Hints:
This protein is α+β, with helices and mostly antiparallel strands.
Amino acid sequence: MDMRFLMKQAQAMQQKLLDAQQNLRAEGTAGGAMVKVTLNGAKELVGLSIAKEAMDPEDPSMLEDLILAAFKDAQKKADDAMAQATGGMAGGMNIPGLKL
């Protein structure tokens, strides 16, 4: 096998993965969409929306719980979307530490 060819393929796959991570958007919601969290494919927070109704000064823990639930929802959706976007990229390889 030609190592240069393999390196080019690996670099192309890495670039495609980085592009997918940056361009993907996954929105998670909680509390009937009173809290919305948007993550990119790398699971970095890119957006947060909180409805006034979710803010109760007497019960801040409710808002905290809603934010956590929305974040977890967005994480799962980001994982699912990245798996779908990169499904055939690794050619069936199961590389430890990479969720492809």
